[in-house]
Structure to design on (203 residues):
């Protein structure tokens, strides 16, 4: 039967915490698989916010959501995920139920392999994501190490999760330990209270 893939596990963890009508964030839109999943999970009364620096990614996600959950509100930003605190509505602070990251490059686009996520933008995005999450909300990060710079980014994300204060979030690791090069998942459940999260998001 086998164990769930890291993507499946990320979706499971998010699905357990998302309610219809919620606000959620896809921090790395890519081909829109997570975007469509989130749109279906929040339903027609919810909103999905998404970030990517490539227009092709946003176009693919918009088309996928139009098929999977056409009534869900979709707000896509042609911008790096590290700008989410600047671009997202301030009232979302402490109210988001799930934030999803898939690090690396745009799948299926060979010419885009040089456009990859990097620690200098990923780490600020992770910090911002945690501040937007409500207590009990979840942050999922699927880490790929097989591309140039991927191992270094993975190490930076690992250290970020290890260093997270326990009163801010509880971090877990899901990986195939016999396949050290395989993608793996880091997930963080937000601790604290909504007022504290809102103050943090506001600076």
């Amino acid at each position: 039967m086998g164990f769930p893939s890291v993507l499946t596990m990320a979706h499971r963890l998010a699905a357990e915490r998302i309610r219809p009508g919620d606000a959620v964030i896809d921090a790395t839109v890519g081909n829109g698989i997570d975007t469509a999943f989130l749109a279906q999970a929040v339903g027609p009364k919810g909103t999905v916010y998404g970030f990517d620096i490539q227009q092709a990614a946003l176009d693919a996600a918009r088309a996928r959501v139009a098929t999977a959950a056409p009534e869900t509100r979709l707000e896509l930003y042609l911008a790096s995920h590290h700008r989410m605190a600047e671009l997202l509505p301030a009232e979302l602070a402490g109210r988001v139920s799930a934030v999803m990251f898939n690090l690396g490059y745009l799948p299926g686009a060979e010419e885009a392999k040089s456009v990859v996520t990097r620690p200098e933008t990923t780490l600020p995005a992770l910090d911002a994501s945690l501040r937007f999450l409500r207590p009990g909300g979840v942050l999922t990060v699927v880490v790929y190490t097989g591309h140039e710079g991927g191992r270094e980014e993975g190490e930076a994300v690992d250290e970020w999760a290890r260093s997270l204060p326990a009163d801010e979030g509880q971090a877990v690791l899901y990986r195939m330990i016999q396949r050290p090069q395989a993608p793996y998942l880091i997930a963080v459940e937000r601790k604290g209270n909504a007022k504290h999260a809102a103050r943090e998001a506001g600076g």
Remarks:
- Confidence is low (pLDDT under 50) at residues 194-199.
- Residues 6-201 form a domain with the Rossmann fold fold (CATH 3.40.50.150).
